[in-house]
Amino acid sequence: DAGVIQSPRHEVTEMGQEVTLRCKPISGHDYLFWYRQTMMRGLELLIYFNNNVPIDDSGMPEDRFSAKMPNASFSTLKIQPSEPRDSAVYFCASSLARGLNNEQFFGPGTRLTVL
Amino acid sequence: AQSVTQLGSHVSVSEGALVLLRCNYSSSVPPYLFWYVQYPNQGLQLLLKYTSAATLVKGINGFEAEFKKSETSFHLTKPSAHMSDAAEYFCAVSGVFTDKLIFGTGTRLQVFP
User: Fold this and answer.
1) Of A103, A110, A111, which to mutate for an interface test with B (greatest number of B Cβ within 10 Å)?
2) N or C: which end of chain A has fewer CB within 10 A?
3) Which residue of A has its CA nearest to B106?
């Protein structure tokens, strides 16, 4: 299995532009998670999906952030408009199920820089 | 409710020395416990996990952790540090009915020659 795939790996954009981050989870995994990691705030859970349905989006910082999962093999995290404080590494992770099999497998991350 | 506390945001050891990274958890249900490692510019990868079988769990790269219910601890150890162990380590907790992992704030391990 190729693992969790994220694209792009690096994104540099200017303030005010729309940014779309993409994630392909491991095939057969029911859960997908989006995280943000910064030096100041550490690792933060933004939102997670179960069977393509958003379960908890309480970590989404504000309305500029949105996430979708149109099918079991694809998810997007969109920031519109982007701001310099959004600069961070964004990780996608997936897990098979809840309980005993809920270990998460992380993608390599997307490093976002907003100028 | 569940939480984890990692004592020490930075730990430094000499190559060949014992590595001890501390994690204490709080959980109202029997916990599942995890250690993840993050190497520079990479995602997190699972080192080991405890799911209520053996209390001493062995993971990859010579790491192990012991679940101690009386102390609510799940400390990570390695007998002899290697330069390649330099990374950030995260402890996490979940439970049988839990969808997500609750991560600690991480401990950065430095290994000096």
Assistant:
1) A103
2) N
3) A42
Tokens representing B85 are 């162990």
Report CA torsion sign: A110, A8, B46, B29.
Answer: positive
Q: Is the dihedral of CA A50, A53, A56, A61 positive or negative?
A: positive
- Strand, helix or coil at B60? helix
Residue B84 has φ and ψ, to the nearest 5°, of: -70, -5
Residue among A74, A83, A86, A95 nearest A37 (CA): A86
Residue A4's nearest CA partner among A89, A92, A98, A67 is: A92
Which residues on chain A are in Cβ contact (under 8 Å) with B42?
108-109
